[in-house]
Specification:
With about 110 residues, the chain is mainly alpha-helical. The chain has three helices and two strands. Helix 1 (about 1-10) packs across helix 2.
Length: about 110
Amino acid sequence: MVYNAMKLFMEVNPQLFDDCSHDYAEQQNNAEQKQRNRQAKWDRLAEMAKNRKNGQLPTLPATTTTGSKVTSPIKQEDSDPLSQDSSRRLEQLRLADDGASGRDRRAVTTSVC
């Protein structure tokens, strides 16, 4: 059954099948490193909790401000893919909105002149 579904998928869109197969293989190759990174983060969190329990306040990494954006030290690949996709869509909407408002301003200024 699964084989038939894969065969159908391959026949319908071979390029998409190749892309998906490549992405899956890459995820499988990086799974061990990703798991080690997750474990290291949990270990750091446990250490911070232990320090806090002992009365020490944890020191958080500082965030930096670049222009109008505030960036955190969390890497983009560390967050989940769904939130990355949502962030990209939000940024595209913001850029589209900025472009539309710029055109509206030009239309107003040309009609006033």
